[in-house]
Structures
1.
Amino acid sequence: MAKLILSMDGLVLKEIPLTKERTTLGRKPHNDIQIDNLAVSGEHAVIVTILNDSFLEDLGSTNGTVVNGNPVKKHFLQNNDVIELGKYKLKFIGEAAPAAGAGGDKADFEKTMVLRPSTMKAAAQAAAAAGGGAQAAVAARQAAVQAAGQSAAATGIADKDAVKAPAAPAAAPAAAAPAAAPAAAPAAGAAPAPKPGGQPLGAIQLLSGGNAGKELELTKPLTTLGKPGVQVAVLTRRPQGYFITHVEGDKRPEVNGQQIGAAPHALKDHDVIELAGIKMEFFLKT
Amino acid sequence: MDLSQSLEIATCTDPGMVRSHNEDSIAADAANGLVVLADGMGGYNAGEVASGMATTVIVTEMRQILSGAKPYQVDTKTKEEIAPKIVREQVLKANTSIYQAAQTQPQYAGMGTTLVVCLFYDNRMLVAHLGDSRLYMTRDGKFKQVTRDHSLLQEQIDSGIITAEQAKKAAHKNLVTKALGIDPSVEPEIHEYPTKPGDIYLLCSDGLCDMVEDEDIGMTLSALGGNLKLAAEQLVQMANDNGGRDNVSVILVRVLREYPGTKGMMGKVFGWLK
């Protein structure tokens, strides 16, 4: 859903989702977006939204409508366009602002659709053409890999990931060269976003018990600790960092001497966890 | 028979990180051993309408029928158990409701939904599905996919055009070949499997399996199986952490203990004859 963010002097006033086909802007109260300012005409402008496209049209306002500094009569709104009405600014955020790398217009493409028997043949052909059997996909990947290699070479970055790209899933080349390899984008777009990679690796070291001194690296998305049936907690690795959550047992684990709640608890470097009578320290490896 | 003592059910649904609407619908009725998950499609809010209709129609109708009959009852005419028949009929009923709404109301034109329905009875589970929402199960630490998607991609995999590895990167993941409410009539795929105490069944929309690797889903279930609610939330969170590009819904069902059906005289005789 596209939306507008209304602000004045850099202060965000409100967010307005563009739910209607016609959203009117003006000073008079019957407008969908009323801006009570004398610089704004009674019926100033209208935004027509058709599917994912929004068009701004000035309705012959006295002071005109300005988009990104240029006065416009009619304008096809793009993501992050700024509409200026007097001293008010409306920032246009298109449908599904780009989430990660590969661009936002794909979100709609990924929507589940049904293939009717009648259209099935055409779609199968289209898919075959798009996929080109395996050949086109392979060719696209190769292009991506080459592009990734070239861009790495051009910028002089001997990145290990870029070198490894041929073996890695298509997400890696796409991340390495998003602009350089548009041909690879459709192939890479549907793959899950890369795993949390940039964050430091966490580990725990046992401080008491029979295995005191032992260290465990937390490389997996989740690691369970404790004794099943007695007390179990899970350490989850997320893009935001590591979290500890109580799973089972009457007693909840303690972090720095405090029992944690039912919700996941964020772990900080050198936190001391106590679980099923065993103390351990969480720390981040560099 | 009330199955809520034999089945533990946890659900979680989330719009994800990108979409503003949640077009998935889920419903669970532990007493009747029934869980339903639907992932709607169609413009504006039509997807929500279609998936909502599917879950509501199936749950209400099934409840009605199960209040007067047992799924393992044998039909006197066909000499077969009624479970597959009643599930199929309710799916068709939901199909008709959605199809008619789509035909008569322009804002709902073209809406439809995927569907997974599981009915637990007599130490067994019957699953009916349409489209790319899935059923997975874990037993004795082994995690596997039970349903096969009705999707263009799956057909291409089956016919050997592409490999499962290539499928993960395919661009047309979203095309389903069967769905509820698109045509006047539809044939759900129905299978029956025996269950064992300790089994965990996972129903999910493609928002989970597209974003999270099967391996990680399996690991989550084995690690957090002790706390089903937490496992459901963790799965949704993992999908969102990986980008959350679609609505994510999960239903987890754990078999706590056996739930044999008490057969009547007729059933006993037929069971014995088999």
Note: The mean pLDDT of chain B is 90.
2.
Amino acid sequence: MNASLTPAQTVGPFFHDCLLRGDGLASDVAGEGERICLRGFVYDGDGVGVPDAMLECWQADRFTRVGTDARGAYTLNIISPNSVRASGSLTQAPHVSLAIFARGLLNHLFTRVYFADNALNARDPVLLRVPANRRQTLIAMRDADQSEPAFRFDIVLQGNGETVFFDFK
Amino acid sequence: MITSIGEIVRGDADVFPPYLYEAYRATIRRAPRMPLVEVPLELAELSGPLPNAIPVTSDDGDLTRNAGTGGEAIGQRLIVTGRVSDSRGAAMPDVLIEVWQANAAGRYIHKSDQWPGPLDPNFLGIGRCRTDGDGTYRFLTVRPGAYPWRNHPNAWRPAHIHFSVLGPSWSNRLVTQMYFADDPLLAQDPIFNAVPEAARSRLVAAYAHEVTEPEWALGWRWNIVLDGANATVFEEPGPA
């Protein structure tokens, strides 16, 4: 029963000094694997960049937090994710998990970032739960302009092209 | 308070606030409008960041002194403590708690807080600690003041402390706010009232005389309950 759970509240506008203090944030990626730069914007329902959002990225053994800048842009330095075998031995396509926090979000949002051109995307059990016409909102596209491996992933909180958000049940 | 309340909720709708709650104006253009996609727990992220992903020192839990100036913050000293447990009542040790709050005058150090409340040079308003083996956390701080915001005419946020709770599972990540019992500003606050009425009291700390230390600080107790039902399933690395 969930009778006693503590409710969520918005992160508000004043979290930066606490949650984005420099120490301990794994933006300086260490470890094995291909390094990937994931970048994009967080947009509101008017298509305006959200300048006071925070993203948390979790990829099985690596945790990163970043804030958006005045234009709503973010940059996450991650390691190329390996595929993860969930219980029931269903193989999942490589992905990273994001939690999105902002003033005006009374509870954070969960989403996932998958990577374009990966053959496993077509049979990923989570992607297959998403209506086919919305799956592309979860696919990061390779950013060919960059010298390093880079992917573009925008998060649309509301409206046209609204990103798919998840509820774990 | 007349408001349009959305139907999209993550988690138990009897507990968690909807994303759209028009009385809190910032939700109107930021709340998702499409249904959330449900993911069964066996496909979810059941591991989570280790608490040592973020270092904690013993000074981090004393907000009255952790500005590092050598001086003490001004305000009514409070001990804020409580227990973090799962929904079955089991203690959750080693949970990372991060807090941030306004000073006694209701002013944050944040650069975008510009209302004319005085800053306190000896108060940062940020702290962190980990729960002990009994799931207990504890901070020493000063009572935060209320502060105005522009959500509606003569709007004031009730005194509160922001809590970030990073437990063992990514899927029960929680960010919330703790309020104080008998605050007259709670009734007009749309952020607090966005929570379903039956669950609102879980955000309100209670004065606890047994926590109060003589000739030192007043004690307040606030317990946190995270959904622990998923603790029995684990992600395993698969083939690359």
Note: Residues 52 and 166 of chain A are 22 Å apart (CA to CA).
